[in-house]
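Hi team,

Filling in the usual template for the complex we talked about on Friday. All components are listed, including any nucleic acid strands or ligand strings, so the model treats them as one assembly.

SUBMITTER: L.P.
PURPOSE: interface mapping
COMPONENTS: two
RESIDUES: 894
SEQUENCES:
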Amino acid sequence: MRVRARFTKQGKVRFTSHRDVARLWERALRKASVPVAYTAGFSPRPRLHFGLALSTGHESLAEYLDIDLDGERLDGPVDLEKLAVQLSNALPEGILVTVAAEADRSADSLQQAVTSCTWSIVVGGATRAALARRIEQVLDTPSLPVTRERKGRQVSDDLRPHLISLQLTHAEHDTCVLEAELGTQPRSVRPTELVAALSPEWTELRVCRLQQWISHDGDRHEPLVPWRTEPSWAPTEVRAP
Amino acid sequence: MTSIWPLLEPLLTRVEKPARYIGCEDGAQQPLHAPAKVSWLLVYPDTYEIGLPNQGLQILYEILNEREDAVAERSYAPWSDLEALLRQHRLPLFSVDGHRPAGDFDLLAFNLSAELTYTNLLNCVDLAGVPVRSEDRRPEHPLVIAGGHCTYNPEPLGDYVDAVVLGDGEEVVGAITEVVAEWKASGRTEGSRQQVLRELSKVPGVYVPAMYEVTYDGPKLVSIAPRYPDVPAQVEKRTIADLAAWPYPKNQLVPLTEVVHDRLNVEVFRGCTRGCRFCQAGMITRPVRERPAQQVRTMVAEGLRRTGYDEVALTSLSTADFSGIESVVGGIIDDPVNCGQVSVSLPSLRVDAFTVGVAAQLQKARRTGLTFAPEAGTWRMRQVINKLIREEDLYEAVDAAYGQGWRRMKLYFLTGLPTETDEDTMGILELVRNCVQIGQRHTRAASVTASVGGFVPKPFTPFQWFGQNTVAELSRKLSLLREAARRERGVQLKWHDPRATLVEGLLSRGDRRVGRVIERVWRQGGTFQEWSEHFRLERWNEAMAAEGLSMDWYVHRHRTEDEALPWDHLSAGLHKDFLWQDWRDALDEVGLPDCRWTPCYDCGACTGYGIEHRVASAVPPAGGSQGTGQDLRSEGDVLVRFLGRRSLGAAAT
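RESULT (copied from the run log):
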């Protein structure tokens, strides 16, 4: 049986890396005595399949993980609500399981299935007017070239085809908040790259992944929708350094 | 005392591994500070990854927070990227628990486990906003204290720390808390700092360097003597008699990010009486105090359940010597709760086939590397250092290991040992080569990694009088080995930088004058000296020259029997004449058996303090030579004489 879980990563724990989160999960599953399936071989590993990596320092309301359970060690049907609570208790503060559901083992992996993510980005160094102007300009232009480092070499890339939507959602004093939907195929465009492409003068102060999306034949849905109102993201509380 | 987190948070997006600074570990505490409580900041002066797992620090963290009159938080040396940002933004060193400024605590208590962290201690004190020299501190500044193995010669830091603790910290932190609580209650008025230090100097196990006058005659040290009649002439170490009374840590910290020794650690015994002459830990932590097997089982079961770790290390200086090791290990492996997924590691393995049998049993789940420490390449050399492993023991262990599926192993060696000849040095390679050949009978992929470290003579060991090998000599020996190893299939050689070994030697036996050298190196930016990318020998050489001190005199010179040593006024219980005799025995290539299972030879560690070995079994775990150099195969029956009343009586007289 495969269980898909959706979880948050907020607060201090956002400074842990993707690898750290993987280890946290392994320990949490053991603490909660979840009968996870293990790989065979000399060095057995728990069969966990993580979705798209989140940059260290970024927060998220929509992280995903697929967990394979060992059918032989399951006694009866799995109470998914109870499982979510147990796991949340076993995970550090800031990581909360917002929904868990049985998943199809034959379906595409999370990394293959997810096509885009919606991000909330707190931008520093920009005024509301400048940001609004730049957004309009970028949305009108057919290409948004960026250079990035890949395997130690500078490569150029066009961000525009991967920029699905971009808007200013909040502006107060010097704090401006953008919301952007960025494509993840064939590679994930990172919010940091977007901010750099908007202006080298501007910096991201805080970033939160709000949603991950699976788009297929004109239909767009999240891998899982939280059971209840999820924890909120309050970008306006962010202060400039 | 308020949190600096809001100011720190934006900086963390700009540093490497920011998870080092967030705390939030499972087991972390948010103690409630109050004016009546003494606040301790426990600082490990190296990176979070190295410092977090330190068991000593974790034990004191829990013990202090359990007290009504104390609170404790933790801090680690910030890496150079964050340090630069902290200085640029005028932010201080902080605790990772509450992100409180270090300078707001009553005590900055450092764990000193390695000499090369000394410059980091100065840096942390400075980052806390506290003057680095003890004499410049005022009543509003925290007391700067230290504990850990390096404090058996604290003299190089004598002008920089206010007090150090010798030996086990479990009990003495309570006594220190009480003295500091009175100081707090008195309002920490002008001049009171001297008074509290004077009071601390009377607490057994606490040494206050400023209360002692150091006299020199030219380069020679003459004496270190108390300035006042109520200050003890000799400071004795603290020893907890019964480990069972201290089942700590109860809530081992589980970090959110990867650290060294990232697993559950359960201490099965403290102290070691194998008597390896190069080993300071084995000399200063005597006698052997075992934790009852039942308590070990409970701590392991509860620890695994609470932490979610899938690996547990049974720690001690030689875990295969633990009474009932087989049943404890078997119990963990066979516990159905662990579902066969928990592996056990034994960090310090005795070299014999019995050990490999235990190791095979305990690594059913996941097989990690196997490490042995023969320490020297020839039997003659091993007699000198009293590491009485016969070649047969090692080869049987190796044969058993490869026979049971291991493909690689690691062997630890020292070079630069007393009386070492090139034949002894090359004996290392001979031994490694033979191990590879044995392995290749089992698997073509067999390989052995030999890790060779330069020997540093340590205080309170029989080798404390020995002149350390020079960098040139160590380098010559290492190149002999490297040259020869190049032609060997399956042999990998690793070595420590002899230049770092030199500085370790300076700090390990230096006197108070060496403090100014440490300060100069720190002022030149010489932090994180354990990290090769930060270590620069020139800084140390320049600082020595500037202070008019000779590396040769401090490091490479043989000491004489009548020479005053910088740690003569401190005591680990060991009689100096016992150590001297053991040094002469070493030069005569005479071994000394383990007194846990053989009669007492009165080193002083038990008799002096009226304590005894606490071991559950009258015979050592079976097999091999038990490091005695004799064949003990006959069912492992070794006669043991427990220390009787005689020794206690002797202590009382």
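MY TAKE: The radius of gyration of chain A is 19 Å. Residues 18-31 of chain A form the longest helix (14 residues).

Thanks, L.
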